[in-house]
Amino acid sequence: MYQGLASVYDRLSTIDHSAWADFLEHLFITNSLSGKRILDLACGTGNMCRELAQRGYKPVGVDLSEEMLAMSESKLRGLGVSLYRADMRCLPPLGQFDAVLCLSDSFNYLNNLDEFKKVLLSIRGMQPQLLIFDLNTPYYLGQVLGDNTFHQVEEDVAYIWENTYDEVNSLCEMQLTFFAREEKDKFVRFDEVHAEKAFELGEIKRLLLDAGWQLVSVHDGYSPNQPKEDSFRWLFLAIPG
Questions:
Q1: For 42, which DSSP code?
Q2: Euclidean distance between CA atoms 62 and 41, whole angstroms
Q3: What DSSP state is assigned to residue 158?
Q4: For residue 171, what are the β-bridge partners?
Q5: What angle do CA 96, 102, 104 make, to 5 degrees?
Q6: Which of 22, 72, 93, 200 has the fewest Cβ atoms within 10 angstroms?
Q7: Whole-angstrom Cα distance, residue 96 to residue 14?
Q8: pLDDT per residue over 201-215, tens digit each?
């Protein structure tokens, strides 16, 4: 995953990373974060690391994809951001952090609650003051994506996005086909398969408690609003229990 997608990820992304960073910083301040060292798990192409570094924080990025990290490295050059290649399910010793983030539905790529708990326990060992992560909701994965097909055509890139939702296993499989311009009249095709697990809100609350975390708040995405039945994304804030 994210081999071919890395090269076009930023061109296709609709995320306002500056607005997300504004809300994260609001959470840092209102929850009295006292330090600046931030771990960004599954940092992708480094957009949040860049936002945080430009605001005076000291982010460290971790991602499994070499291609995504290569994009991050070029984007973050000169900002003093350290990057590591690692699987969040088996993190190397990285030291202590004041806050740990895992954004852009990266935890939805975990296969089950056991894997999720293992990651939460590993993060707990880093002794952060705050843990902030988001998840695509069951409503979004099951009904919005569901068994639907999407497409987008831009001047230099196009994609077809076919989804299949497995209700028994709460799993959304995404078949992605991309066409990216390589030369003036030449496009390169690449295909990837992604799968995201839908976790229930109650499951996550119990899981956090079992892994030694106290849930502080759940938000409707990157906003102060409470979750709704049709929320696309949940944002969780937890502290050590």
A1: T
A2: 5
A3: E
A4: 166, 197
A5: 160
A6: 93
A7: 32
A8: 999 999 999 999 999
Tell me the two tokens of residue 205: 């609350």
* Closest to 128 in 3D by CA, of 48, 223, 34: 34
At 160-196, the pLDDT tens digits run 999 999 999 999 999 999 898 887 788 889 899 999 9
pTM: 0.94
Note the pLDDT tens digit of each residue in 14-67: 899 999 999 999 999 999 999 999 999 999 999 999 999 999 999 999 999 999
> What's the start-to-end Cα distance of the chain, in Å?
34
Distances (CA, A) of 77 to 40, 81, 83, 234: 17, 8, 11, 31
Q: What are the Cα distances from residue 213, in Å, to 115, 150, 164, 236?
A: 16, 37, 33, 11
User: Among residues 195, 221, 225, 240, which one has the least CA distance to residue 20?
Assistant: 221
Q: 3-state DSSP: the chain helix, strand, coil percent, rounded to 5?
A: 30, 35, 35
| 62-96 b/e (C-beta count within 10 Å ≥ 16 → b) | bbbbebbbebbeeebeeeebebeeeebeebeebee
Rg (CA), the chain: 18
Tokens coding 182: 């390589």
Residue 225, exposed/middle/buried by CB under 10 A (0-12, 13-18, 19+)? exposed
